[in-house]
Amino acid sequence: MVTKENVLEALQPVLEPTLKRGLTALGLIRDMMIREASVSLTVVLHPDSMGQAAGVEQDVVNALSGLIEGKPHIRIRAMTEREQAEAQGGQGEAGSASAGSQAKAQEAPVRGHGAGLERHTILHPESGVEFIAIASGKGGVGKSTVTVNLAVALARQGKRVGLIDSDIYGFSVPDMMGIEERPVQVGDKIKPIERFGVKVISMGFFVEDNSPIVWRGPMLGKMLRNFFAEIDWGELDYLLLDLPPGTGDVALDVHQMIPQSKEIIVTTPHATAAFVAARAGAMAIKTNHEIIGVVENMSYFESKATGEREYVFGRGGGGKLAETLGTDLLAQFPLGAPDNHPAEPDFSPSVYKADSEIGREYLALAQTIIERCGK
User: Fold this and answer.
1) Residues with Cβ < 8 Å from 218, sequence gap 6 or more?
2) How far apart are the two ends of the chain, measured CA to CA in Å?
3) What are phi and psi of 135, to 5 degrees?
4) Residues of 194-224 as b/e, b for ≥16 C-beta within 10 angstroms?
5) Which domains does the chain possess?
6) pTM beyond 0.85
7) Which residues are bridge partners to 144 per DSSP?
8) C-alpha closest to that of 42 among 63, 11, 73, 6
9) Would you tell me how many other CB atoms lie within 10 Å of the CB of residue 346?
10) Fewer Cβ neighbours under 10 Å: the N or C end of the chain?
């Protein structure tokens, strides 16, 4: 079976045209997905190299021709300004280890030793990381769908994004994003999985066969602290946290650990869902978390045949919730699912394509978040 290490090794001779160094050495092979014999990946190029993108793509195809059958699915994007500085300084992307280091890496669970959180710069207010917790009052409102699509949309805007699946009992992010691999340990840190340009960590990576988690509150808090302390996040602009629904132990731990975090509250338009979501908003206010706004999910169902909208869960809940919390209604997403096919190289059950109607709406939401956070 073709492995990630095989692909990275095969691509070692392929150079970045402007920087004149190997793509793998610079950590510019991202978001790799291997399904049976098919490979999909992203190549990140210096902006001055984008005119040679077709040539680089052909070099990658040629390099992998002896390894896989058929043509790999290749996406090419330009570096952000910070990625340029890192690459020109000789530093590869933290989330893309070289073939040699990945070959040495062994799968490992998150360990439980607890160094003081103040020593881990990602949690320090001066780290430059913008923390955004995505909360809801109850389950079933599509909070995780909003989280993963917002994270992907921010990455599509050129931002460096991490995502913590903090819903430790009801983890779903790996499945929603189509992630099948597990994190590996390199040195004394664990590398998060990168998918759609987003670095992801979840309790689901460390549980066998979708087994239930039977833990009390203190254990949940300890695992959440490890997600900050022992994961090699590298440089991030945004770190999104998919919170469990309600106002339980994990949500309280997040509020205490990251006092500088901002929040987005997700609800459906149903009056009861909005009423319950107000509790999550009230918790954010009491702990001095800034609420960026409200996202209303499942706002309506639009018939493909007639284009008519049906308001299955009623109307007005998101707007009323925003008014109650003294914030804005940021977006209203319809009831639906991505038009993705399992045979596609980039298949995921829940991530909308960038050029789809809802995908464009998520890009607009991401731009609003960027503007409000000043990043």
Assistant:
1) none
2) 42
3) -125, 160
4) bbbbbbbbbbbbbeeeeeeeeeeeeebbebb
5) 4-104 (3.30.300), 117-373 (3.40.50.300)
6) no
7) none
8) 73
9) 17
10) N
